[in-house]
């Protein structure tokens, strides 16, 4: 693993600017993502953390051009300098799957149950890399071996239901990496899995990142998974970025009360039982009727009068940013 | 054990599984739960932990007599549930309630919160007065942290955490003695998980409930359990008091599960490279001979492949099913 303090000075691989995502629903306009900015360089691993409804999945769906029909995205998402948001589907298809790959949460619903694994994998390679069938198959087998699926020559002839949950997710990781993408987007890749398998998949993703310099965006609600895998963290709440910084900054000096609450509510086995279990009171706000000012105000233990106005994004010299009136240099 | 309410003896639930062959399917036996025994006291919480496919949900259903045991007994206050007549069993069910994993799926979307919570009351007391029902419904809603003025709303108007509170209110409306929680927080966000666990903990104290709390993750059950049972492929690997289990587990599988829990601390998390557990869980249709865990156990010896280890009492109230429990020191090092 690359030391955390080593600054990556290359040009950004992906740069997202002022991203807005909205959905028209019968009940009114839902603002899923508001004015989001972040960037990522080759080999970086960024975690986007937030609760359900915080807009983390819709952010990457917008970047990938996968929003549902009633969705609308505005802003810029520059991948290697080109704006993905302005591309036609045909143009997007030259990048998706090849340079940008995505792993979805539920491996059973994203694999076709009627097709053998080889058919699903070979298709991708033949399309993007122009290999012939036997070359493509050999490459697919190699990838399955890389994610440590035992006996890949035989397993590749099987159907998705013949694999266990952890194996299926490993197949998904292998498929995501088939074309050696520059950017891998993983949407809750381990949430549906058991802890022991979760640990295996996390280790696998770290190893792949080290070996192939693939940049990773990891979307999750679980701060536990992030700590070992990522070097930067973006915390989202109700469609907004509330805090962004290195893993050390987020875990050791969280500035936003939401981040602090989220960290405190992770059940930890490395601390004495007497520490108890903290929670954040209340529920996430309704995206149809977002409160004015700070959106976390109703659940925040440190809320005060000023929070009725929208808090500014504060930024310190170490590139640690947070959206709150508190936490600045006194 | 004082005030024992539930006694489970050598409980087994086997399913018949048909496989292949359109005309002559091969019938195999899937041993979802195979010889589990434990006791539960009044006001006590037993955590049950294991990975998917270990039989924990089947066990929960067998405890409530929703499934017939293939072997063994479930004794509720000394009575074998399987031997009761349908009518007697129905009456007993007042005492035994369950909270399900997916809070939204467990609630009828076309019923109001009032009707959902009141349904058990109407079922058990058809002649009860409407005023009494309303009073009771509002009472439990307050108890679980819902606003009583929300009684006329429908489930989709609530968030996941609130839906789980409705599910808990429905389980508590009959004043049960035992509540089985089948992964009640695994579908919830982390910040909400803690709310629900703390709620269950305080309700248990207030009402002197016995709880069986099922989870796939050891970190979740730690804060609520008095004792924890770890299951693997239908068998109990270890039953230990909370304090011992997390400090000095007796079974290698427990130790692996503890090590697999992610730590939200970058310096520690980066140093962790291995859980000591290799491979995947074998198919429950074809479990390994001898100790079911031997194929993945780093401490496995010849004897483990031949002989099934019995669940035996090691010290005090701690039970383990491992041949090598005495010689292994699995103390968890502070990180």
Describe the structure.
- The complex is a heterodimer of chains A (330) and B (335).
- Chain A is α/β, with parallel strands linked by helices and 330 residues long.
- Chain A folds into 2 domains: 14-99 and 181-329, P-loop containing nucleotide triphosphate hydrolases (Rossmann fold, 3-Layer(aba) Sandwich), CATH 3.40.50; 107-180, no CATH class.
- Helix content of chain A is 31%, strand content 24%.
- Chain A is built from 11 helices and 12 strands.
- Chain A has helices at 56-63, 89-95, 107-110, 117-129, 133-146, 152-155, 165-177, 195-212, 223-229, 247-252, 257-264, and strands at 12-25, 28-41, 45-49, 71-79, 82-83, 100-103, 183-187, 215-220, 232-237, 240-246, 313-315, 321-323.
- In chain A, the strands form 2 sheets. In chain A, strands 6-7-8-3-9-10-12-11 form an 8-stranded mixed beta sheet, with helices on both faces. A 4-stranded antiparallel beta sheet of chain A has the order 2-1-4-5, with helices on one face.
- In chain A, helix 5 (133-146) packs across helix 7 and helix 7 (165-177) runs parallel beside helix 8.
- Residues 1-6 of chain A have low confidence and may be disordered.
- With 335 residues, chain B is an alpha/beta fold.
- Chain B has one domain (4-19, 27-248): P-loop containing nucleotide triphosphate hydrolases (Rossmann fold), CATH 3.40.50.300.
- Helices cover 30% and strands 24% of the residues of chain B.
- Chain B is built from 11 helices and 12 strands.
- In chain B, the strands form 2 sheets. Chain B has an 8-stranded mixed beta sheet, with helices on both faces. Chain B has a 4-stranded antiparallel beta sheet with strand order 2-1-4-5.
- In chain B, strand 9 (227-232) and strand 10 form a beta hairpin.
- In chain B, helix 3 runs parallel beside helix 5.
- At the A-B interface, helix 7, helix 8, helix 9, helix 10 and helix 11 of A face helix 5, helix 6, helix 7, helix 8 and helix 9 of B.
């Amino acid at each position: 693993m690359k030391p955390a303090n080593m600054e990556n000075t290359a040009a950004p691989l992906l740069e997202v600017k002022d991203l807005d995502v909205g959905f028209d629903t019968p009940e009114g306009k839902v603002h899923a993502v508001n004015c989001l900015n972040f960037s990522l360089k080759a080999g970086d691993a960024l975690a986007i953390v937030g609760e359900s409804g915080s807009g983390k999945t819709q952010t990457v769906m917008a970047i990938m051009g996968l929003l549902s029909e009633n969705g609308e995205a505005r802003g810029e998402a520059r991948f290697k300098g080109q704006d993905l948001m302005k591309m036609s589907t045909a143009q997007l298809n030259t990048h998706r799957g090849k340079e940008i790959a995505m792993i979805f949460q539920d491996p059973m619903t994203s694999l076709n149950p009627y097709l053998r694994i080889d058919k699903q994998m070979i298709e991708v390679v033949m399309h993007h890399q122009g290999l012939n069938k036997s070359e493509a198959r050999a490459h697919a087998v190699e990838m399955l071996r890389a994610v440590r699926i035992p006996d890949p020559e035989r397993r590749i002839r099987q159907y998705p239901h013949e694999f266990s949950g952890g194996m299926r997710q490993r197949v998904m990781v292998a498929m995501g990496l088939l074309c050696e993408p520059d950017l891998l987007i993983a949407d809750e890749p381990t949430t549906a899995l058991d802890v022991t398998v979760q640990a295996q998949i996390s280790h696998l993703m770290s190893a792949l990142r080290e070996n192939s310099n693939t940049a990773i965006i990891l979307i999750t609600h679980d701060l536990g998974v992030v700590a070992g895998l990522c070097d930067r963290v973006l915390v989202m709440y109700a469609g907004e970025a509330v805090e962004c910084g290195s893993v050390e900054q987020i875990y050791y000096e969280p500035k936003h009360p939401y981040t602090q609450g989220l960290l405190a509510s992770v059940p930890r086995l490395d601390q004495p039982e007497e520490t108890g279990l903290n929670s954040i009171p209340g529920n996430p706000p309704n995206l149809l009727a977002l409160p004015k000012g700070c959106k976390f105000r109703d659940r925040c233990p440190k809320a005060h009068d000023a929070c009725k106005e929208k808090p500014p994004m504060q930024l310190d010299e170490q590139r640690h940013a947070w959206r709150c009136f508190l936490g600045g240099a006194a | 054990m004082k005030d024992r309410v539930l006694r489970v003896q050598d409980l087994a639930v086997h399913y018949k599984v048909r496989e292949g062959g359109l005309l002559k399917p091969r019938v195999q036996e899937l041993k979802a739960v195979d010889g589990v025994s434990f006791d539960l006291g009044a006001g006590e919480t037993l955590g049950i932990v294991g990975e998917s496919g270990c039989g924990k949900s089947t066990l929960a259903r067998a405890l409530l007599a929703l499934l017939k045991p293939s072997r063994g007994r479930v004794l509720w206050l000394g009575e074998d549930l399987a031997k009761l007549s349908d009518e007697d069993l129905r009456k007993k069910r007042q005492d035994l309630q369950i909270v399900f994993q997916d809070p939204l799926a467990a609630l009828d979307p076309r019923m109001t919160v009032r009707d959902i919570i009141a349904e058990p009351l109407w079922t058990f007391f058809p002649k009860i007065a409407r005023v009494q029902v309303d009073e009771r419904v509002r009472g439990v809603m307050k108890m679980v942290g819902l606003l009583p003025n929300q009684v006329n709303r429908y489930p989709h108007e609530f968030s996941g955490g609130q839906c789980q509170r409705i599910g808990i209110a429905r389980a508590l409306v009959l004043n049960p003695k035992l509540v089985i929680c089948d992964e009640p927080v695994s579908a919830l966000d982390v910040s909400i998980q803690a709310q629900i666990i703390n709620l269950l903990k305080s309700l248990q104290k207030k009402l002197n409930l016995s709880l069986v709390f099922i989870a796939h993750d050891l970190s979740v059950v730690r804060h609520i359990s008095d004792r924890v049972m770890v299951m693997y492929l239908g068998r109990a690997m270890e039953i230990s008091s909370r304090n011992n289990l997390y400090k000095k587990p007796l079974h290698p599988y427990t130790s692996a599960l503890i090590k697999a829990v992610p730590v939200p601390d970058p310096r520690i998390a980066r140093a962790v490279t291995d859980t000591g557990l290799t491979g995947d869980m074998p198919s429950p249709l074809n479990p390994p001979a001898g100790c079911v865990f031997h194929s993945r156990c780093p401490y496995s010896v010849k004897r483990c492949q031949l002989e099934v280890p019995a669940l035996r009492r090691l010290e005090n109230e701690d039970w383990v099913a491992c041949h090598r429990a005495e010689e292994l020191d699995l103390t968890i090092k502070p990180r």
